[in-house]
Amino acid sequence: MENHEPHDTAKENLIFNIITRKISQLPEAERNLFENGSAYIGLNAALCGLIANSLFRRILNVTQARIAAGLPMAAIPFLTAHASYKGFVSLPLNTGDLNCETCTITRSGLVGLVFGGLYPVFLAIPVNGGLAARYESALLPEKGNILTYWTRISKPVFRKMLFPILLQTVFAAYLGSRQYKLIIKALQLPEPGLEIQ
User: Fold this and answer.
1) I need a surface site. Which of 32, 34, 45, 50 has the fewest CB within 10 A?
2) Which pLDDT score, from 0 to 100, does residue 192 have?
3) pLDDT tens figures, 87-133
4) Using CA atoms, how far apart are residues 161 and 173, in angstroms rounded to an integer?
5) Which residues contact 129 (CB under 8 A, 6 or more apart)?
6) Residue 139 confidence (pLDDT) above 60
7) Burial group, residue 92, by CB count within 10 angstroms (0-12, 13-18, 19+)
8) Helices in the chain by DSSP H: which ranges?
9) Which pTM was predicted?
10) What's the CA gap between 157 and 49, in Å, rounded?
11) Does the pLDDT at position 195 exceed 60?
12) For the purposes of burial, counting CB atoms within 10 Å of the CB of 63, is it exposed (0-12), middle (13-18) or buried (19 or more)?
C-alpha cells in the first residue's frame, strides 16, 4: 500500500491547476468537448436505455406505465454513464493520472460498453419484468424456470441492441482519444503570462 504524504497532494493539486489553466486556453469548441464529453456518453446511454425498454415492452406486451418505465430507463443510465466516464476517464486525464493514449481509449471504450451499452439493457429486464407481472400482460415463469425464461426473452433484445451497444463503445473510445489529444495540445500551449523571446 502506498504512503500518501502531504506533499503528494500538494503536487497533485499543482498538476491539476496547471492542466485546468491550460485547458481554459483552448478554443471554446474544444474546451466544450473536453468538459461536456461525459454528458454525450450519458445521452447515448439514455438512448440505449429507452431503446431496450421499448424492445422489452413489446416482447412482454406491456402497454401501461410508459412514463413510469421510460423515465428511469433514461435517467439512471444517463447518470451512471456520465458519472463513470467522469470518474474513470475525465478526472484522471485532468489530474495527470491517465497519461497513455491506448489506456485512455481502452478505458473510455470499456466505460461506453459496460455503463453506456450493457447496463441499460440489463436494467430494462427487471423494470419491464415487474411491469409485466403487475399488469399480467405476459405469462411469467414458475420458480424453477426463471433463468431459462429471461435468457430466452433477452436473446432477441440483445441481438437488436448489438448495433447501439457497439456504437456507444466506439463513440466512447473515440471521445477518449479526442480528449487525450486535447490534453496534449493544451499542455503544449505556452503559459498565459509568459512572453516568448
Assistant:
1) 32
2) 65
3) 999 999 988 888 899 999 999 999 999 999 999 999 999 999 888 88
4) 18
5) 56, 60, 140, 150
6) yes
7) middle
8) 6-23, 28-59, 66-85, 91-95, 101-113, 119-135, 146-160, 162-187
9) 0.87
10) 12
11) no
12) exposed
- The answer to whether 85 touches 176, Cβ cutoff 8 Å, is no
Which has the higher per-residue pLDDT, 85 or 192?
Answer: 85
Cα–Cα distance measured from residue 179 to residue 109, given in angstroms and rounded to the nearest whole number: 13
Of 117, 111, 25, nearest to 103 by C-alpha is 111
Do 28 and 173 form a contact (C-beta atoms < 8 A)?
Answer: no
Distance CA 23, CA 185 (A): 9
d(CA 50, CA 55): 9
Identity (one letter) of the amino acid at 18? I
**Nearest Cα residue to 104 out of 115, 91, 117:** 91
